[in-house]
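PROTOCOL LOG
Step 1. Enter all chains and additional molecules of the complex.
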Amino acid sequence: MSLLPEPVAVLIAALGRLPGIGPRSAERLALHLVQSDSVSIECLAESLLDAKKRVGFCSICGALTEQQPCVICSDNGRDPSSICVVETAVDVINIEKSGAFSGRFHVLGGKVSPLNGVGPEDLRISELESRLHDVKEIILALGTDVEGDATSTYLAQRLSSKALKVTRIAHGIPAGTGLEFADDLTLSRAMEGRREMQ
Amino acid sequence: MSLLPEPVAVLIAALGRLPGIGPRSAERLALHLVQSDSVSIECLAESLLDAKKRVGFCSICGALTEQQPCVICSDNGRDPSSICVVETAVDVINIEKSGAFSGRFHVLGGKVSPLNGVGPEDLRISELESRLHDVKEIILALGTDVEGDATSTYLAQRLSSKALKVTRIAHGIPAGTGLEFADDLTLSRAMEGRREMQ
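Step 2. Run joint prediction.
Step 3. Record the structure below.
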């Protein structure tokens, strides 16, 4: 007979499905939660439902938003001639934080991954193609893993017939670290991507 | 202007208050949750509320339970002559898992900790004293830190006038490890607690 009350076991299972939460962490969290006061647990449950209810994806670019279209797509001050293509809605937030880009975004919703059964038709590529009028540059800001590389190559080929420039963000040594922390692939990419100093 | 929708920021704050969840993890979890399907997020919110609503503390021993009194307190097969005193309701579950104890439990609800403003009167000690009829042994299974030591000593003194034995669980080298992994204090406690081999 297990001493763990059934609702606690259900909660542990639900928490264990979250990314980065293992079975031990899920148990620790669940037992903390049932022992904490009602207000904080209700506040957590409410913020979960509230976030899900109020936050959706922008119908144009696919970023997280409370309004349609999102603040970026409805901002006339942003450069409409360049679109930055990213994998997930979270990437939009990260690039915006950096302040390095002033154009529009387009969220693919993943990357081509035959092993996981994700083909180009599962991504928001035709939605991207319908946005290409007046666009002069597509900046691919996908991951640097095998699938990110394959998706970038695929997109560059598919868009090559259009009258626009397709670029990919640079890969190299991260800012603020020495060469000793970079792996071989990063080093060889950094070498390939070298630029003449002014 | 932050791109993070306000309900997501609220959710990140709520998740960040959980133990072991730092700001980065909270952000990652929240963004995963708002991007996942409605069913899984509702299931999580519901299991939170359900666990809090249905699970409470046993009125006798203080363990987590769905019924009053809990399954251990209402089990006549368990030895009523020994009570194992623990800090939290979770400790009961852990000791039960080990199968090493067949008596009753008593949850103190913490340990004496002057720095955190927790005195003996904040713990369930008088509740323990009201359960002492027919009890022959009190087993103290509190932590081995300074506060656990102080609480054990305090309880042993306070209960010394009663006609019962007060014992404390052994501290020493954990099972399955070598001496090289034990710190000085653990080694000296293990030495103190040595027993004659049969």
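Step 4. Note key features.
Chain B has seven helices and six strands.
Chain B has a mean pLDDT of 88.
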